Automatic annotation (TrEMBL):
This is Enoyl-CoA delta isomerase 2. Keywords: Acetylation, Isomerase, Mitochondrion, Peroxisome, Phosphoprotein, Transit peptide. It comes from Cebus imitator (Panamanian white-faced capuchin). The keyword Phosphoprotein applies. Its EC number is 5.3.3.8. It is found in: Mitochondrion; Peroxisome matrix. In the C-terminal section; belongs to the enoyl-CoA hydratase/isomerase family. Gene3D superfamilies: 1.20.80.10, 2-enoyl-CoA Hydratase, Chain A, domain 1 (3.90.226.10), Lyase 2-enoyl-coa Hydratase, Chain A, domain 2 (1.10.12.10).
């Protein structure tokens, strides 16, 4: 049954993000868009062809949507079926633009291409040590200023679900942050969610080796991802701006401080999903909150409010949402002025004796999950979510 579900997902949900072709925006050119800025628009379309680096699927979807809006107006196509993922992604991107006027869409298209050209060209020219905005990330925004490297999960329309690309980009951003001249590193989310956890469509892209290979690759990726948090050398702080689900919650046990808005909730519904704990939470949560409370979260999927998570030691402090950003960033800027080497060494003293244990826990959790992902319970949960039969 599990295999059947995987096969269904494999047939119905191809890796749409990989097959959105780069020049798609040019295929539908429509002369109706002839207006004063048509020349800019055409120049922008030509610029897209000249980009040296593929800007990634999310950007290509935005370009597609703006192109369609600029040339045809609001989305006028019937919504594709749930398993027609390529066309659904394109439809969603276009439909999200609502009644945006054609002129504005055209201008946004031109602006996006222009920012794309400069960001992709300048990504290799950033001087180390200067305050800067990151380039070359598709699923994140990364900035570094006032001694703080801030990594923002940036898929707000998907509640910052972590797709495979985002796993890789977070690892890349953490590696860069560990070497840059900032004192502390912050992870936060853009939009109303901190993160809805693992992107459940990650399970639909089945390689030629089949579902077993998919599960094996996912376990390898997860182990490497969590390992980056275990080994991160500088103070790592989570600014939890809204609800957090799954892996975005479990890895909080590897952070040095967690600040939460009172809008945030903390939810690890692994049993509901036929899965088991990761992010070293089977070890860290027991240490943080004791076995009884950890079991309520990790086995029974109890969702905690920010206040409850704070009372149980998972969260450092909670702030009213209305003043959250101001209060947290004032605090973080003060921390970032402390001597960086002293902070790094103190973290080492606090954390190092646990590292070996954490890596062993991580390896064990990933190997258990590798099996879980092949179970009927897990596959049914994923298929139910993708076919919109269930939500948390
Ligand atoms: C390499 C593999 C490593 C695996 C590591 C193991 C990790 C495990 C986990 O993290 S388990 C947790 C997995 N997360 C979930 O099960 C959450 C699923 N999402 C939901 O239940 C809901 O979306 C919600 C409660 C988070 C929010 O509900 P609501 O406010 O009603 O919003 P929508 O459902 O309409 O969501 C908007 C938009 O986002 C898409 N989306 C949200 N979360 C995910 C997700 N986790 N994966 C994929 N897509 C997600 C949702 O489908 C909507 O998309 P649409 O507009 O329909 O295209």
């Amino acid at each position: 049954m599990a295999i059947a579900a995987w096969r269904l997902a494999q047939r119905s949900c191809p890796s749409y993000l990989q097959v959105i072709s780069f020049p798609v925006v040019q295929l539908h050119m429509n002369r109706a868009a002839m207006t004063a800025s048509q020349k800019d628009f055409e120049n922008a379309m030509n610029q897209v062809k000249l980009l040296k680096k593929d800007p990634g699927n999310e950007v290509k979807l935005k370009l597609y949507a703006l192109y369609k809006q600029a040339t045809e107006g609001p989305c006028n196509m019937p919504k594709p079926g749930v398993f027609d993922l390529i066309n659904k992604a394109k439809w969603d991107a276009w439909n999200t633009l609502g009644s945006l006027p054609k002129e504005t869409a055209r201008q946004n298209y031109v602006d996006l291409v222009s920012s794309l050209s400069s960001s992709l060209e300048s990504s290799s020219q950033v001087e180390p040590g200067t305050d800067r905005k990151s380039t070359g990330y598709e699923t994140l925004m990364v900035t570094s200023e006032d001694g703080i490297t801030k990594i923002t999960l940036n898929r707000p329309a998907k509640k910052n679900a972590i797709n495979v690309e985002m796993y890789h980009e977070i690892m890349r951003a953490l590696k860069a942050a560990s070497k840059d001249d900032s004192s502390i590193t912050v992870l936060t989310g853009n939009g109303d969610y901190y993160s809805s956890g693992n992107d459940l469509t990650n399970f639909t892209d089945i390689p030629p080796g089949g579902v077993e290979e998919k599960a094996k690759n996912s376990a390898i990726l997860l182990r490497e991802f969590v390992g980056c948090f275990i080994d991160f050398p500088k103070p790592l702080i989570a600014v939890v701006n809204g609800p957090a689900v799954g892996i975005s919650v479990t890895i909080l046990g590897l952070f040095d401080a967690v600040y939460a808005s009172d809008r945030a909730t903390f939810h690890t519904p692994f049993s509901h999903l036929g899965q088991s704990p990761e992010g070293c939470s089977s070890y860290t949560f027991l240490k943080i909150m004791g076995p009884a409370k950890a079991t309520e979260m990790l086995v029974f999927g109890k969702k905690l409010t920010a206040g409850e998570a704070c009372a149980q030691g998972l969260v450092t402090a909670v702030f009213p949402d209305s003043t959250f950003q101001k209060e947290v960033w004032t605090r973080l800027k003060a921390f970032a002025k402390l001597p960086p080497n002293a902070m790094r060494i103190s973290k080492e003293v606090i954390r190092n004796r646990e590292k070996e244990k954490l890596h062993a826990v991580n390896a064990e959790e990933c190997s258990v999950l590798q099996e879980r992902w092949l179970s009927d319970e897990c596959m049914n949960a994923v298929v139910n979510f993708l076919s919109r039969k269930s939500k948390l």
